[in-house]
Specification:
This is glucan endo-1,3-beta-D-glucosidase. By secondary structure, the protein is an alpha/beta fold. It contains 15 helices and 20 strands.
Length: 535
C-alpha cells in the first residue's frame, strides 16, 4: 500500500485494486467541526511510545481507513475535495514529521516498508547457562541500544524481569519441563505459579507470553506431552484472575522434529503420534489468540546437506531457488521454506488462523572441525540477512507481505552448555557486550551489511541525516533518546526537510510541541474510535 502526500496540500490514496473504497465513502467519514477537538491527555514520556506503537499496530493490521478517519479529526483543515484529502502545508509537514516518509518531487511517500524497522518482530533468546554473564541491568541497556524489541527467557528470573521494566521490550517467560506435571494436575499450583511469577511484574514489565515447557513433545517423555495442554489451560485460567495479566498469552515451543514431512513446504505435516495432542493445543491457541511457537534452524538443514548450493539457500544468498511442486511457489531461502512447512502442517489440521512465532533460530559462529558451516562469516550472513529479510516485510511465499515474530538465538554465548563447540557459540554478543559479529541490529545501523542482503527500500541515502543535531539543553524524558532531537539510534525519521528515508533514524518531538500535541489528538481519536468499534 502506498500513501502520497503532495506538498501542494493534497493527500492522494493509491490503494491496490482490492480496495473498493470510493471517495464518496471517504467524504462520509469527514467529521463535523468540534466533534473531537481536544486530546484526551497530553503526551508525556512513555505515552509517546505507546501511541507510536498503536500507530504501527494499525498500519500492520492495515486499518488504513481508521487512520484516515482519525486524520480528519486531528487536523482542522482536512477535507475531501476533487477526490483528494486536502490539508494545508503546516499540517502536511506535521504528518511528515510524525510518520516519516520519503520526499521526492514535492511529495512525501509513505509505504508499509517505511515502518518496517520500527515494528516489533525481532526478538532474542536470553539463555543463562553460563557463569560470566553481565548484570541484568547491563543487558537491558544493551538491548535498548539495538532494534531488538522482544526477549525470551527460558524460565523466570526476577532480576531480569525487573531490569526490563519500563523499557518497552516485551518478555516471554518460561515454565520448566519439570514443573509441567504439577501445573497440569493442580489448578491451585497454576494459580500459585502465576501469583509468584507474573502478577508482581506485569504492571511494570511487558510480559507477553508464558511458554509452557520447551520442546516437550519430542522430549521422549510421554507424560510430559500429555500434561502439556492441561498445564496451559490451568495457567490461562489463573492469568484471567488479574485484569493486568489477562492479555498475557500462553503457548509452548516445538522443535522442527514435530514434523514428519517438510520438503516441499506444501507437504508439511505433523508426526502421526503428535497429531491428537497438537489438535488440542492448536484449538487452545486459536481460542485464546496465542501463537504456535517453533524453532526452525536452517543451519541444521545445511549440516545434513552440506553442498554449496544448500549453503547459499540457507544464508539468503544468491541461488537458483526451489519451486514447490505442490503449490508451485518459488522459494529463495530455507527459513521461508521451513516456516511455510509449519504453516502447511497447521493448515492441514484446520487451524489457518493460528499465527506462527519463530521462538529460536540462529547460526553458530564457531564449531568443532567436523561441524561444517559453523563460522563467523556464515553466522553474520545468516543473521544479518534474516534481519534484513524480516525488515523488508516480504514475508514467506505462503504468508506474503508480513513478517513473523522471530527470536534470534542467542543473546550471549552460553559457556557451560554441554555438547559440541557450536552449542556454546551462538551468541550475538560476548559477555563484555562487544559483538561476535555485526548483524545490523544496532540502532545506528540502518541495514545489515552481511553478504547478499535482500533488497530494501529504494530510498537513497542522505548523509546529512546521519549526523545528529544536539538536543536543546535539559530536554530529556524517560525515553531512550532526548526529545526534540534527531539522530542515529532510533527507528523513524522526519523527512519534512526533503531528506530520504533512513530507517534507523528517528525524531522525538518535544513534549508540548506542535507535533506532539497533534499526535495526541490523532491517537486520542484513534483510541476513541477503536472503543466505539468494539462496543
Amino acid at each position: 500500500m502506498l500513501f502520497i502526500l503532495k506538498f501542494n496540500t493534497n493527500w492522494e490514496n493509491d490503494r491496490g485494486s482490492d480496495d473498493k473504497t470510493s471517495v464518496k465513502e471517504l467524504e462520509k467519514l469527514s467529521p463535523k467541526k468540534g466533534v473531537i477537538n481536544q486530546p484526551v491527555e497530553d503526551i508525556l514520556q512513555k505515552g509517546l511510545a505507546v501511541h507510536l506503537h498503536l500507530l504501527l499496530l494499525l498500519m500492520e493490521k492495515r486499518h488504513l481507513l481508521l487512520l484516515i478517519f482519525a486524520l480528519f479529526h486531528t487536523f482542522p483543515s482536512a477535507h475531501v475535495a476533487k477526490g483528494k484529502v486536502v490539508l494545508n502545508f503546516v499540517e502536511a509537514e506535521s504528518i511528515a514529521e510524525i510518520f516519516g516518509g520519503e520526499r521526492q518531487k514535492g511529495r512525501i511517500y509513505f509505504t508499509d516498508k517505511s515502518f518496517a524497522v520500527s515494528q516489533s518482530f525481532i526478538g532474542v533468546n536470553y539463555g543463562q547457562v553460563a557463569d560470566n554473564l553481565p548484570p541484568p541491568s547491563v543487558t537491558a541497556a544493551l538491548l535498548q541500544s539495538t532494534t531488538i524489541s522482544k526477549l525470551r527467557l527460558y524460565g523466570v528470573d526476577p532480576a531480569v524481569i525487573q531490569s526490563f521494566a519500563g523499557t518497552n521490550i516485551s518478555l516471554v517467560i518460561g515454565v520448566a519441563n519439570a514443573d509441567v506435571a504439577s501445573l497440569a494436575s493442580d489448578p491451585a499450583a497454576a494459580a500459585s505459579w502465576v501469583s509468584a511469577n507474573v502478577f508482581p511484574y506485569v504492571g511494570a514489565s511487558s510480559i507477553s507470553i508464558v511458554s509452557v515447557g520447551n520442546e516437550a513433545l519430542d522430549s521422549g517423555d510421554s507424560s510430559l506431552a500429555s500434561n502439556l495442554l492441561p498445564a496451559m489451560q490451568n495457567l490461562l485460567y489463573a492469568l484471567s484472575a488479574s485484569t493486568a495479566a489477562s492479555a498475557v498469552k500462553v503457548s509452548t515451543v516445538h522443535s522442527m522434529t514435530v514434523l514428519s514431512q517438510s520438503d516441499p513446504p506444501s507437504s508439511g505435516a505433523f508426526r502421526p503420534e503428535f497429531v491428537d495432542t497438537l489438535k488440542g493445543i492448536l484449538s487452545f491457541l486459536r481460542d485464546s489468540g496465542a501463537p504456535f511457537m517453533i524453532n526452525p534452524y536452517p543451519y541444521f538443514a545445511y549440516a545434513s546437506d552440506p553442498r554449496p548450493e544448500t549453503l547459499a539457500f540457507c544464508l539468503f544468498q544468491s541461488n537458483p531457488g526451489r519451486v514447490d511442486g505442490g503449490s508451485k511457489l518459488a522459494y529463495t531461502n530455507m527459513f521461508d521454506a521451513q516456516v511455510d512447512a509449519v504453516r502447511s502442517a497447521i493448515n492441514a489440521l484446520g487451524f489457518p488462523e493460528v499465527e506462527i512465532v519463530v521462538a529460536e533460530t540462529g547460526w553458530p559462529y564457531k564449531g568443532d572441525p567436523d561441524e561444517v558451516g559453523a563460522s563467523v562469516d556464515n553466522a553474520k550472513a545468516f543473521v544479518g540477512n534474516l534481519v534484513a529479510h524480516l525488515r523488508s516485510l516480504t514475508g514467506t511465499p505462503l504468508m506474503p507481505g508480513r513478517s513473523v515474530d522471530t527470536y534470534l538465538f542467542s543473546l550471549y554465548d552460553e559457556g557451560l552448555k554441554p555438547g559440541p563447540t557450536s552449542e556454546r557459540s551462538f551468541g550475538l554478543y560476548r559477555a563484555d557486550q562487544t559483538m561476535n559479529y555485526d548483524a545490523g541490529l544496532a540502532k545506528s545501523v540502518s541495514t545489515s551489511n552481511a553478504a547478499a542482503s535482500p533488497p530494501q527500500s529504494n530510498a537513497t541515502s542522505d548523509p546529512t541525516l546521519q549526523s545528529p543535531t544536539a538536543p536543546p539543553v535539559g530536554m530529556t524524558t524517560g525515553l531512550t533518546q532526548p526529545v526534540g532531537w534527531c539522530g542515529p539510534g532510533a527507528t523513524l525519521q522526519s523527512a519534512a526537510e526533503g531528506g530520504s528515508l533512513q530507517p534507523a533514524v528517528q525524531c522525538f518531538s518535544a513534549v508540548g510541541s506542535r507535533v506532539a500535541i497533534r499526535l495526541g489528538h490523532l491517537f486520542s481519536c484513534v483510541a476513541l474510535t477503536l472503543l466505539m468499534l468494539t462496543q
